[in-house]
Write a structure and sequence with these properties.
CATH class of the largest domain: Alpha Beta
Strand content: 15-25%
Number of strands: 19
Number of domains: 2
Shape: elongated
Helix content: 25-40%
Largest sheet: 8 strands, mixed
CATH topology of the largest domain: Spore Coat Polysaccharide Biosynthesis Protein SpsA, Chain A
Number of helices: 9
CATH architecture of the largest domain: Alpha-Beta Complex
Distance between the termini: 49 Å
C-alpha cells in the first residue's frame, strides 16, 4: 500500500479509569496495544505522532512523541497538540484503543479531504471524531475551544468545512464497522482479544501450568495458549499476559514480555529457560514457578 503524505496522530493520554489500568499498555497480539496500533498505521503513513499525558509511561516507539501541555483536556486537547505537531500536513486522528483499524477506509478518508477542513465518519447515528482527518487550518478553532473548555470535538464541525462520511459509504469498505471498535471496560478488552484470535487463529499451541503465587492469582492451574508458528518464550509470556491480565505487573512484565524477578520458567520439565528467544514448539509444556513453589 502506497504511503500517504498525511501524518497519523494517536491519542493515548486518557485516564483509562473505566478500564482500571492504562489502555496503551494492555497486551494485544503479543505487544502493548499502542505498539499494535502504531504498527498498523505505519503501513499507511510516513509519520506517526503519539500524544501522551505529561508523565505517562509508554513503551519504546519509533514515533514523534508529543506531551499534552495540560493533561486530561479530552479529545480536543489531544487533537490540537497532535495536529499542531503535524503542521503543515493534514492528519488522521485515532485513539490507542482501536485495534481493528481498516487501512483501506483510512486511506479513503484521507482521499476525501480535498477542499474540506475535516472529514469525519458518521457511524450508527454518531460522528466518530477519533477516526477522522483534520486540516491544520482548524488549529485556531481548537485553541479557542480549549480556552473556553469546550472539550467535545463536535463543536468544531459547526464552525469549519466538514464532510460527513455516510454509513453507506463506510460499509462499502468496512462492512461491519470494525474500525470503530474501541475498549473502555475490561469486558471490551476481553471481547477484542477473542475477536482478534477468531480473525487470526494461531498456528501453534502449547500448555502453560502455573504454580505457587501465580496459580493463586490466576485461580487456575493450567491452560492452553495459541501462539504463532516458530514462537519464542516471549510470545508465550505475551499470550499469557493477554489471557490472564491479573498476572501483569505481579508475575509478568508485559512491556518486556518476561517474568518479573522471583519467577522462573521450565520447558517440558527438562530445563529452566531465561532466554526470551528460546523456541517453543507445538505441544510443548511451559511451567511458571515462583520461589514460593520451590522454583
Amino acid at each position: 500500500m502506497k504511503k500517504s503524505a498525511a501524518s497519523a496522530v494517536v491519542l493515548t493520554g486518557g485516564k483509562s479509569s473505566r478500564m482500571g489500568r492504562p489502555k496503551a499498555l494492555l497486551p494485544f497480539n503479543g505487544e502493548p496495544l499502542i505498539s499494535h496500533v502504531v504498527c498498523q498505521l505505519k503501513t499507511v503513513f510516513h509519520r506517526i505522532i503519539v500524544v501522551a499525558a505529561p508523565a505517562q509511561e509508554l513503551p519504546d516507539l519509533e514515533v514523534d512523541l508529543v506531551r499534552d501541555e495540560i493533561e486530561y483536556q479530552g479529545p480536543v486537547g489531544g487533537i490540537y497538540f497532535g495536529l499542531r505537531a503535524a503542521e503543515p500536513e493534514i492528519a488522521f486522528v485515532t485513539s490507542c484503543d482501536a485495534p481493528f483499524l481498516n487501512l483501506a477506509l483510512i486511506s479513503h478518508l484521507v482521499s476525501r479531504m480535498d477542499g474540506f477542513d475535516v472529514v469525519v465518519p458518521f457511524w450508527q447515528e454518531r460522528l466518530q471524531p477519533l477516526h477522522a482527518v483534520y486540516h491544520p487550518r482548524v488549529l485556531p478553532f481548537l485553541k479557542e475551544q480549549l480556552e473556553r473548555h469546550e472539550l467535545r470535538p463536535i463543536f468544531l464541525y459547526e464552525k469549519v468545512s466538514t464532510l460527513k462520511i455516510s454509513e453507506q459509504e463506510i460499509r462499502a469498505i468496512d462492512p461491519d464497522g470494525s474500525s470503530f471498535i474501541n475498549m473502555n471496560m475490561p469486558a471490551d478488552y476481553q471481547a477484542a482479544l477473542q475477536r482478534w484470535q477468531d480473525l487470526h487463529p494461531p498456528a501453534t499451541f502449547c500448555s502453560v501450568e502455573l504454580f505457587g503465587v501465580a496459580r493463586l492469582l490466576a485461580k487456575t492451574s493450567k491452560l492452553d495458549l495459541g501462539i504463532p508458528a516458530r514462537a519464542s518464550l516471549a510470545h508465550v509470556i505475551a499470550a499469557l499476559a493477554e489471557k490472564l491480565p491479573v498476572l501483569a505487573g505481579k508475575v509478568i512484565e508485559p512491556s518486556t514480555k518476561s517474568l518479573i524477578p522471583g519467577y522462573a520458567c521450565n520447558v517440558n520439565g527438562l530445563e529452566f529457560v531465561r532466554d526470551p528467544s528460546f523456541e517453543i514448539k507445538h505441544g510443548d509444556s511451559v511451567f511458571i514457578l515462583s520461589a514460593d513453589a520451590g522454583g
